[in-house]
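Researcher: Structure prediction, please.
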Amino acid sequence: MTRVTLDIQDNLALVTLNRPDKMNAVDFEMIDAVIAAGEALAARDDLRAVVLQGEGRAFCAGLDVVNFGALAMGDPEALIMPRTHGAANKFQQFSLVWRDLPVPVIAALHGVAFGAGFQLALGADMRIAAPETRLSIMEMKWGLVPDMGGMATLPHLTRADVIGRLTYTADEITAEQGADWGLVTELNADPQARALALAQSIAGRSPSAIRAAKRLIRKALTAPEAEVLMTESREQTDLIGKPDQMEVIAANLQKRAPQFK
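Model: Predicted structure follows.
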């Protein structure tokens, strides 16, 4: 079975974890498939937004326990330490490929998002969760620490004490608690439909402005203030008077939907 399905329509990509019999538990094959899907989408100039979801009754139950045996019996140093994707290894790229995508990514969460699945969702720009969804940084349950990009994304979303609480205990929390702590963007009874509607709304905006906004937000989270301010000015200068912005102005004046090339 294909671990990940990719459906692209009207400049939107629907990326679906496709191992429903295992609640989309992550094995090595799925890690490779998720990275390949993200990298393929990153190369598309026509892409405007992405929805990331899980098939069946859960978004993702975390790392497949069968993989723990393979890791323990192998050479962790050789498997984990090499940097295969810039500053990241492939386990971290599983999540960070979505953070680094040039367009917004919306994760639709239902059932559970545990361990690797939770860190995958943290790589998205937004997380829409069904109210009954359960979340957990699960690694401590297995005597491990989060190692799939979570420590690069969590500090931008919530407080240090919350990160510690979730990491040290491996406790499950509700999506409502996740929303209170900044880990869930929005609660919705039908997260997949809501995520798709939000992606469609984004896709109707200026594609060049949306990509500029994602670059600018990333810069604002990581760079010194002077660099952020300069980037803000540069991105704006590069948008003003260009075809996408002129089409937005014309569409607003003519009271119609913009049509971008």
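Model: The first strand starts at residue 4 and ends at 9.
Researcher: Thanks, that helps.
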